[in-house]
Specification:
Elements (H helix, E strand, L loop, with lengths): L1 H27 L3 H17 L2 E4 L5 E6 L2 E3 L1 H6 L10 E5 L4 E7 L11 E12 L4 E5 L10 E8 L2 E6 L8 H6 L6 H4 L18 E7 L6 H6 L3 E9 L2
Parallel strand pairs: 3-4
Antiparallel strand pairs: 1-2, 4-5, 5-10, 6-7, 6-8, 6-11, 8-9, 10-11
């Protein structure tokens, strides 16, 4: 009887210890609401802290600077442009995406019913990790830019990365996902998609702050925001 009692007692203590460990591990796991709150604070800090994205210890890749946020109403009153000299970014409240249009580009906007294939050059900065996460702005990716097939369906723009035996850009290679992040598609309603006709014409170029809900699948799964600098140009 004594053996059975001690045996049952030891099992009970073991189970209690396991259950306590399980509860402790649950406490260590952040809730989705907590992760979203962290993301919000990361974005708020990024807007105000004069960020410089470094290529090396001594070379600045992108000087983001302190950002001036404007409303959609102001953006539309300004003919859908952002004042780069004031470092303006428009906040689209329904998505949480911030956008700065550096250059509206050559050519025409993507029209309803139209599909175009676009060359995209980009740099992706993980705002939680404070580091460049992926980029195709490098000698290695020069012959293999990311290609997007974008379609305007009654004002709603969709897109997928072009992937075949000969083409697979840095974004697809990094995340193995043909879906273009929703945040990347936001500028295509405002910039012109064409090709440079003369040297003084700039191609479409934007900067974005993209929350996880509008981002690539790793950002979406792990709840972190990314900053992007992206250029768009129509293929030949």
């Amino acid at each position: 009887m004594r053996y059975n009692f001690l045996h049952r007692l030891s099992i009970g203590v073991l189970l209690a210890g396991c259950f306590g460990g399980f509860l402790a591990s649950c406490d260590d796991v952040e809730s989705y609401a907590e992760l979203k709150e962290k993301e919000r604070k990361i974005i708020e800090s990024f807007l105000s802290r004069d960020v410089a994205i470094m290529e090396s210890i001594s070379d600045t890749l992108i000087h983001v600077g302190k950002i001036k946020v404007i409303t959609e109403d102001q953006f539309y009153r300004q003919d859908s442009v952002t004042d780069v000299s004031e470092n303006e970014y428009v906040l689209f409240k329904n998505t949480g995406v911030y956008m700065q249009i550096i250059s509206k580009g050559a050519g025409e906007k993507l029209q309803p019913g139209e599909t175009k294939q676009l060359i995209c050059r980009y740099t992706e900065f993980n705002m939680r990790g404070d580091s460049v996460q992926t980029t195709n702005v490098s000698a290695y990716w020069e012959p293999m830019p990311d290609l997007i097939e974008a379609t305007n369906t009654s004002g709603t723009i969709s897109g997928s990365f072009v992937v075949n035996d000969y083409v697979a850009g840095a974004m697809y290679t990094a995340y193995n996902d043909k879906s273009v992040p929703a945040g990347w598609l936001v500028p295509l309603s405002y910039v012109r998609i064409g090709r440079q006709i003369s040297a003084d014409q700039g191609i479409a170029k934007v900067r974005l702050i993209v929350p996880h809900s509008q981002g690539q699948k790793d950002a979406s799964a792990n709840v972190y925001p990314c900053f992007y600098e992206i250029s768009f140009q129509e293929t030949r």
